[in-house]
Amino acid sequence: MAEFITKITMIKPDDWHVHLREDKILKKVVNYTGTFYKRAIIMPNLNNPITNCSQAISYRNQILRAMNSNCIFQPLMTCYLNRFTIPEELEIGFFKKIFIAAKLYPNCSTTNSKTNIKKIDHIAHILERMEKIGMPLLIHGEEINKNIDIYDKEAMFIENTLKPLRKNFSKLKIVLEHITTKESVEYIKSKNAKYLCATITPHHLMLNRNHMFSGGIQPYLYCLPILKRDIHRKALRKVIASGDKHFFLGSDSAPHLHKNKINIFGYSGIFNASSSLLCYVTIFEKMGALKHLQSFCSENGPKFYNIPVNKETITLVKKPYKIPKQINVGKDVIIPFLSGKILNWSLET
Ligand code: OTD
Ligand code: ZN
Ligand code: ZN
């Protein structure tokens, strides 16, 4: 159902899940996020992951130095959990507002995730402390057993890991990150949004697994969790179009250099920071659900994290926006999601 709206002024959104990397990649990508979003949760899976407060402070400073000086962007840092995480470090970091949350990567579930956490029991003492202090746990929710079909890993994670985890830690605040399946939608929406929410990426709302193989293999659509069947994409769209408060924006923008994407072992990850917000607007418009855009982008996240919504606003206008074809990084390039394509929405300048 088309909506004839040509201008939207809304509370400035936040991106509750983004990878900014370091050094020359960071410098090239960070201002895209800073332009569209006031705050973002920064993923800790660097080559040398962020596992303690001093690393987080220094990474945060590195991000702020890479920003344009007129930007009011606030990076919100996360701690990468592993078998050796010290609960006291998390507690100090959380109370001093160095960390907003801690991130659980089941061992080798995605890029830079050798956490050695092969079973949730390995970190029970850490989760107990997080539950006690009200520190949110962000989860890459896929089972890691190699015998499980890649398309089933997320649904199996709910059954085998998330349900028992929530039984043992019923007051632990959890975000199931970048959900991709109808099973996740059904599970999340039936629970108390104070304790369990989920983020959804633009690419999982726009594409299904056929797109990855359309006209030849498309390495730039390879991400984890992998794109799924269309019934799952439809379930994700339907739930955000209903205005359900359990779901909020998390772009999962994950840049990689072209040479690492186009390789015998191509890296997983989609860089979408140059268009993520404009994609979300396009999706909500297409569904006739623009009235729920602001809660998804700017309100449901702060409510879960117990922080104020932003005071600033942003204005989007119905005007063609051409997504950059490529972003030069030294002698290499990053190719953005929907590279060179035109969207119907732009930021008002
Ligand atoms: N998925 N790639 C990356 C992260 C995400 O699971 C994720 O959050 C990455 O490159 O850091 C990806 O495919
Ligand atoms: Zn992940
Ligand atoms: Zn991610």
Give a short summary of the structure.
The protein is built from eleven helices and 13 strands. By secondary structure, the protein is α/β, with parallel strands linked by helices. Keywords: Hydrolase, Metal-binding, Pyrimidine biosynthesis, Zinc.
Features:
TIM Barrel, zinc ion binding, Dihydroorotase, binds zinc ion, globular, alpha/beta, dihydroorotase activity, eight-stranded parallel β-sheet, binds 2-OXO-1,2,3,6-tetrahydropyrimidine-4,6-dicarboxylic acid
Notes on the protein architecture:
This protein has 349 residues and is an alpha/beta fold. The protein has one domain: Metal-dependent hydrolases (TIM Barrel). Helices cover 33% and strands 18% of the residues. The protein has an 8-stranded parallel β-sheet with strand order 2-3-4-5-6-7-8-9, with helices on both faces. Strands 1-10-13 form a 3-stranded antiparallel β-sheet. Helix 6 links the parallel strand 7 and strand 8. Helix 3 packs parallel to helix 4 and helix 6 packs parallel to helix 8. The longest helix has 16 residues. The radius of gyration is 19 Å and the shape is globular. It starts with 6 loop residues before the first strand and ends with a strand. One zinc ion (ZN) binds next to loops.
